[in-house]
Sequence to fold (296 residues):
Amino acid sequence: MNSNDIKNKNLVLCDFISDLTNNKYKVKPEYSTSNKDNEKVIVIQEQSGEKVVFFDNPSLYNYYNVEIFANSIQEAKDTSVEIGNLIGKNKYYNWVDNKENQKWQIMVKQFSNPRTIAYEDIRRVSYTMTLQVIINRIA
Amino acid sequence: MNWFINNRELIKNLAINTGTTLNPTYTKICTTSEVEVATDLETKDFYVFCDALKRQIVTGASVGLNGTLKIDVNNDGDIALLDKVHTLIGEGEISQFTNVEIEFDLLSGVNNGVLEYTTYRASATLSLSDIGGNAEDEGEMSFELTLIGTATEVASA
Fold:
């Protein structure tokens, strides 16, 4: 993986989660959210976690915080269950970067149980969870 | 580029024969939480004249599959393994632990973006241990299947 691939990991996961949820949500990294995001939104942002490093290979494991904003608490909860069900799976995903067809793998090792967060200022409730994943370009 | 797999994709579909030898029915004991292929090598050390470096040759190998079975009472394969314990307890028989016919898929490579497997059938000796445990834990037992002779390649897919 080159440095551009490493930067793209977050976007690949966003698009994968978007497809997984049948494009019912706007799925975006935290840095691209805006106050116009008043629809159903899933925000995915990398967070800290222990990595494993090999000689001559990129480091393994990324930890992503997933926040689900839906129209109801139950809808957010149901989506969190769907994403949590990825544990133990190794999904292959076709992704296009600048007209280049790429193939990626997304292997979910662990996830933290989802919990609610109340955002009083915007009067919304989200579900948040953390995924431990291997996001790796294979072709 | 690297292509990583998880352990589910390395070895899978471990099944035992729940039919007869003439009409086998291989039932997946798919509730195993982990399966490993263990290869124990027997070696001999030796030295040659003129230096003190130890050399080693391999004289034999034992191939087996070890794992932990989460007991699923709806799974005929899991129940068949328990039946062997019943036979031992009730009748004092041990022959049911030899020549256990098994089938499993082992990763053999990748072709055009698809993982490829080789399916093997083999006879094995079965060893069960750690049946049960803490009261609050899910029911499980450990197993060791040691291959008797070579396995037969059934199919590649």
